[in-house]
Amino acid sequence: MRSTAPCPAVSIDLRLLEEVLYDLPPLEGVFLHWHTHGVTSTTAGIISLLARRKQLLGSTTLSGASIQLLYACAKDSFCSRSGQEPFSPWGSRPLHTRLLRHRPAHSAAEVQALLPPGVLVHKTISFTLANTIVLCTGVGTQCLTRRHLRTIAAALVRQGPNVKQRTINPAPGSSVKKLAMHPGLVSPFLHPSRHAGLAALALLPWSDRWEGHEPEVAISLSLWESLVLPLRCLYPLIRSYAKQAYPAVQIIDLESEDLATVNTDSIVV
């Protein structure tokens, strides 16, 4: 979950980090190398660059391992679906041309305002449920309802942990810190070897009205960079990433809620 009222010191730090980011070689070059030679051809220079990014930018960027695995999964998901659709030069543009730079933001609504028309924000929130960490991810501004919470709790009970205490703590503090995430960059694309305490990843359904317009979704790589993909690729990408990065974590599909339920029984927006 993104914080909504950063203190001035945080803003100053982000401006300094943005200058650092723009002094680094851009990710477009890394993605172009992978597009041309394949992800397995990653060079020592690329590994060094990604490690340097993480060292300098800290929790405001995904790790190098996360970016590399995300690219590989995105390319597989994107390519497998491109062959099923009518050819479109715009829709088929390669991943290195799909990187978008923007100002940092502290909420999904702020990010949405920075994105081009037809591109939706990818939103992920973290919370604790009976002392276990859960990530809930979706598209646009949606609500996590009490019915969703009961679904998550029931799934965790079947998995084993004691979730009789169905209290929810949406504050990002402890769970974000434990997963080494910045409050403005909560993401399901965790470091493949650093996801301690994550019990479940819940997937929120998106509105059917978006399907007919063939929208795209912006996936945050850092506070300043997003990868824009067709919306239909998002959940296959997340599932593929989770299967390789944290296969023991349960994936929970949440059902759509009617508007009346969302308006009267929502917990997290």
Description:
Helix content is 39%, strand content 19%. The chain is an alpha/beta fold and 269 residues long. The protein is built from 9 helices and 10 strands. Mean pLDDT is 82; it is low at 1-11 and 259-264. It has helices at residues 8-23, 27-37, 44-57, 64-82, 108-114, 146-159, 173-178, 234-245, 259-265; strands spanning 99-101, 119-129, 132-139, 144-145, 168-169, 198-203, 216-220, 225-230, 250-253, 266-268.
Query: What is the chains' assembly state?
Result: single chain
Roughly how much helix do the residues carry, as a percent range? 25-40%
What are the low-pLDDT stretches, counting only 5+ consecutive residues below 50? 1-11, 259-264
One letter per element, helices H and strands E, the order comes to HHHHEHEEEHEHEEEHEHE
Q: How far is the first residue's CA from the last residue's CA?
A: 10 Å
Number of domains: 1
- Radius of gyration over all CA atoms, rounded: 18 Å
Summing up helix and strand content along with how strands pair, one would put the structural category as alpha/beta
The shape is globular
The strand count comes to 10
Give the amount of beta strand, in percent.
15-25%
Assign the CATH superfamily.
YbaK/aminoacyl-tRNA synthetase-associated domain
Level-2 CATH architecture: Alpha-Beta Complex
Treating each run of at least 4 consecutive H or I residues as one helix, how many helices?
A: 9
| Overall mean pLDDT | 82
**What characterizes the major β-sheet?**
8 strands, mixed
As for the CATH topology, it is YbaK protein
Query: Would you state the CATH class?
Result: Alpha Beta
